[in-house]
Specification:
The structure holds three protein chains of three kinds. Chain A is of the alpha/beta class. Helix content of chain A is about 40%, strand content about 15%. Chain A is built from 19 helices and 15 strands. Classes of the chains: A alpha/beta, B alpha/beta, C alpha+beta.
Chain lengths: ~475, ~300, ~150
């Protein structure tokens, strides 16, 4: 074909004659296209192979995530193919990183099944990432039109209702994962749960790989844990919970486990991301019908979210999960042991908690996202954080977050209850001081030390962990800060 | 010697400097500019500002005289600026740290008194809660006291107010307002109230020249002007109107100007020589004023001019 | 024991100055404040008695502290809490709630275990103070005998 490389071939007889056209010629590159209110939008970060033109690569991504194939097909003409073609409408080079480009692609609403994240995933990332002309590709962000958002019920509980059910307002919630991750018997496991809750935490948690193993069957865990939860509730007068992990090999088994949790009076169940989008949506609907909170552990996400040049950004996963309908979502700590630079992590939190998320390039948010009244997800900060960081955590994340201190509770020198009490006192003292107008970023350590004077467990915690911090260069940072990294 | 007599150099007088620092000096100057006349009122306000300022400086030196009572009573005819001054007072008191928030809540008897038993106390308390941290302005406060009606609940409101004025001096400043003679009667029958008022400030009626200045300010704000003849006629108008009944000072001036605008507009429509240029559109002339009934031969004095 | 409901229960009881600062924080954000009291501290007892309706449009803590003092005088042996309401879109719920008064002695809760099939237990919580005592007669004053 002698047509130039970029312009769409409009003449139908040439467009659909057998042979190979560039994607841009097939209509997948549409620089004058103005995205409609009802379009689903995506922005990819692509690294084309050497010698591959950026616009053509963008058009290829659009094509391969919608209707194209590597050669022209006559059967296109049996369809209203203009509608079904995704349109790449903008390509920008990534600042400071040669060879990388952002490309914006619009998809017509008609391409998607209502209420199905599995369909969204299959459509957008099902095909494109193995495409040879791309060295690397990353789905950075997506915009869902309200028309599509409204086809999902969203989080079954949401932040407001969760607080109303637990009768806990005005401060972050506290949790901890039982440790060691594996090997405890049911009864010993329940002991850890009781101690943590009795000491002052709101939640305890199964870890992601605790499902039902030879050392502890799930039924025994559920029975002993609920004894611990109720004992701690009676001892304190508070509503308490433990995220019972119902992840299993089949959907039917998951439902069976959730039913038992409900029968025993648990207020919350937990699933791991690895069960898949379909299972997550089923569990979400089940939780709404049975008035349970759904805690989502993002197990396995690091395999594809962590590298800046290839994979799917966690912010997209967070959006998909809010639509699927989860109530808690691990979203990063920024100051703990796991990956996450503060600005990017705040972006994830915005996606969980906003009624309208706004464009914020330093936080990695490429689109305005109207959530159409969908309930809010409570982000969970978990991994290597301790009481000595309470002022940083409160300052970074505000009140609507669950702070999980696994090692920071169970490893306390005076015992688990003391560990829990240290965390709870540190938190309440910090919230009190912040409300009074004090600058907790500057005065945080002083506030903690003042509280430690009358709270011996807190003093011990500060003595043990006060100096620990995890400062490695994050791998996934925004491109839009004054000192961008090139990792 | 008063605050305005103090030298205005930056270095010499620390009090004048402090006055500038708190922004009070600017507020007082603004008061001077925007309110015509009211000399005794302005003097009293400056005195209060001086007192509070000195009090604060004394506190910084460890000299504590106790918070002064600042409840006030403004008496005078309608349209003499009582509500305006109360608003400014709230701002000044806030800048001097005497009230915490500096907002003004303006009420009359009906906002404080209920219609049936048990209705009054919660109503009054509601109003007081909203006014805490600021200034409570009670217009025509004497209506709270109706001794001729034994089923009247105003007395209950008075009791609650007395208590708050005594015990809540840090939380609230109360300003009563109304006609002087009725206020005097009210205080005579309620000595408790009278003893709690620290400052009685009278708002005298404006003189003709002062009213003319007020008219000038109002005209400037509305982007109108008098021509020379109209200005002279207006002075005459003021003299006559002032002598008539129901004169409401600044409010009557505003009403007169509004009617003059009406006649100005009609005249433009009817005059074949009229142009639509800025001069014609903005200038009020003598005929617009002379049409007033104030200039008609003597009739029943209560007719609307 | 000490019931740890409310935002600041793990801290020593707040004095009036501290409560007033929290009230100022709420007023500064435009939240309405309500005072509630109860002598049934069960964690699922959502509806405590209201001491007057929630207070809107207030600018200063003094008004609320006066109401609180009246509530303490009226119900000295009850739990009293301050509740802040946020009416903004997306929240429209309570955003702060903390206890400002407690009975002198808090006996705590009894855990009732009702065993059913298998190893399953049905749990319920019962307050020792409430157990078989009517409203208003649950917490003794100083020096009163409990039976």
């Amino acid at each position: 074909m002698e047509a130039d490389g970029v312009n769409q071939v409009k003449d139908a007889s040439r467009r659909y004659a057998a042979g190979v056209l560039k994607y841009a010629q097939m209509g997948y590159w549409a620089p004058d296209y103005v995205p409609r209110e009802t379009d689903v939008l995506a922005v990819f970060r692509i690294t084309p192979q050497d010698g591959v033109d950026a616009v053509e690569a963008a058009a290829a991504v659009a094509g391969e995530s919608s209707t194209a194939t590597w050669t022209v097909v006559w059967t296109d003409r049996l369809t209203a193919c203009e509608t079904y073609r995704a349109k790449a409408y903008r390509v920008d080079p990534v600042p400071h990183i040669p060879g990388q480009y952002f490309c914006w692609i619009a998809y017509d609403l008609a391409l998607f099944e209502e209420g199905s994240i599995a369909n969204v995933a299959a459509s957008i990332i099902g095909n494109v990432f193995s495409f040879k002309p791309l060295k690397a590709a990353r789905l950075e962000d997506m915009r869902f039109p309200v028309a599509y958002v409204k086809t999902f019920p969203g989080p079954p509980t949401g932040i407001v209702v969760e607080r109303e059910r637990m009768d806990k307002f005005g401060r972050p919630l506290l949790g901890a994962t039982t440790k060691p991750k594996l090997g405890l018997s049911g009864r010993n496991y329940g002991r850890v749960v009781y101690e943590g809750l009795k000491g002052g935490l709101d939640f305890m948690k199964d870890d992601e790989n605790i499902n039902s193993q030879p050392f502890m069957h799930w039924r025994d865990r559920f029975l002993f844990v609920m004894e611990a939860v109720n004992r701690a509730s009676a001892a304190s007068g508070e509503v308490k919970g433990h995220y019972l992990n119902v992840t299993a090999g089949t959907m039917e088994e998951m439902i069976r486990r959730a039913e038992f949790a409900r029968e025993l009076g648990s207020i919350v169940v937990m699933v791991d991301l690895v069960v898949g989008w379909t299972a997550i949506q089923s569990m979400s609907y089940w939780c709404r019908q049975h008035d349970m909170v759904l805690h989502m552990h993002r197990a396995g996400h690091g395999t594809y979210t962590r590298q800046k040049n290839h994979g799917v950004s966690f912010r997209v996963i967070a959006k998909w999960l809010r639509l699927c309908g989860v109530d808690h979502l691990h979203a990063g700590t920024a100051v703990g042991k796991l990956e996450g630079d503060p600005m990017t992590v705040q972006g994830f939190y915005n996606i969980c908690r906003d009624s309208q998320t706004e464009v914020d390039l330093p936080r990695g948010l490429f689109f305005d996202q109207d959530w159409g009244g969908l309930r809010k997800v409570m982000p969970v900060a978990s991994g290597g954080i301790h009481a000595g960081q309470m002022h940083q955590l409160l300052d970074l994340f505000g009140d609507d977050v669950v702070l999980q201190f696994g090692g920071g509770t169970i490893g306390h020198p005076q015992g688990i209850q003391a560990g829990a009490t240290a965390n709870r006192v540190a938190l309440e003292a910090m919230v009190l001081a912040r409300n009074e107008g004090r600058d907790i970023r500057e005065e945080g350590p002083d506030i903690l030390r003042a509280a430690a004077r009358w709270c011996a467990p807190l003093q011990a915690a500060l003595d043990t962990w006060g100096e620990i911090s995890f400062n490695y260069t994050p791998t996934d940072t925004s491109d839009f800060t004054p000192t961008a990294t090139a990792s | 010697m008063q605050i305005d007599d103090l030298p205005r150099q930056e270095t010499a007088n620390p009090f004048a400097a402090a006055l500038l620092d708190t922004g009070i000096a600017q507020l007082l100057d603004q008061l001077d500019r925007e309110l015509v006349g009211l000399a005794p009122v302005k003097r009293r306000i400056r005195d209060i500002a001086a007192l509070l300022l000195v009090d604060r400086l004394r506190a910084e030196h460890g000299l504590h005289g106790g918070a002064p009572s600042l409840h006030m009573c403004f008496t005078g005819n309608p349209g003499t600026g009582k509500t305006t001054v109360a608003l400014r007072m709230a701002d000044i008191l806030h800048r001097l740290g005497h009230v915490r928030k500096g907002h003004l809540v303006a009420v009359t008897r009906d906002d404080l008194v209920g219609q049936y038993i048990g209705h009054t106390a919660p109503r009054t308390r509601e109003v007081l809660k909203k006014a805490m941290g600021g200034v409570l302005f009670i217009d025509e406060a004497y209506y709270l006291y109706r001794p001729e009606n034994e089923r009247d609940y105003g007395q209950e409101a008075i009791e609650i107010l007395l208590q708050v004025m005594e015990n809540g001096r840090d939380d609230l400043v109360v300003i009563l307002a109304g006609y002087k003679d009725r206020m005097d009667t009210f205080f005579a029958s309620n000595p408790g109230m009278s003893s709690r008022i620290a400052h009685h400030i009278d708002f005298p009626d404006y003189g003709v020249d002062e009213l003319a200045s007020i008219a000038g300010l109002m005209l400037a704000q509305m982007d109108y002007r008098f021509d020379d003849e109209a200005a002279r006629v207006f002075l005459d108008y003021l003299g006559r109107r002032r002598a008539q009944a129901h004169f409401a000072n600044a409010r009557s001036v505003r009403n007169a100007l509004d009617r003059a605008r009406l006649r100005h507009a009609s005249r433009l429509l009817q005059d074949p020589a009229a142009c639509a240029d800025a001069d014609w559109l903005a200038t009020i002339r003598a005929p617009d004023l002379l049409a007033s009934r104030v200039f008609a031969p003597e009739e029943a004095p209560c007719c609307k001019p | 024991m000490r019931i740890t409901q409310g935002t600041f229960s793990f801290l020593p009881d707040l004095d009036d100055a501290q409560v007033a600062r929290q009230v100022d924080y709420c007023l500064g954000r435009g939240w309405a404040l309500g005072i509630e009291y109860t002598d049934d501290p069960h964690p699922r007892n959502t509806y405590w008695e209201m001491f007057g309706p929630p207070m809107f449009d207030l600018r200063d803590a003094a008004g609320i502290m006066a109401e609180l003092a009246r509530c303490r005088a009226a119900w000295p042996r009850h739990y009293i809490r301050l509740t802040a309401f946020d009416s903004s879109a997306g929240t429209e719920s309570i955003v702060l709630a903390f206890i400002v008064n407690r009975p002198a002695v808090e006996p705590g809760f009894r855990l009732l275990r009702h065993e059913v099939a298998g190893r399953t237990v049905r749990y319920s919580i019962e307050s020792y103070a409430v157990h078989a005592r009517p409203e208003g007669a649950r917490y003794p004053g100083h020096g009163e005998m409990t039976d």
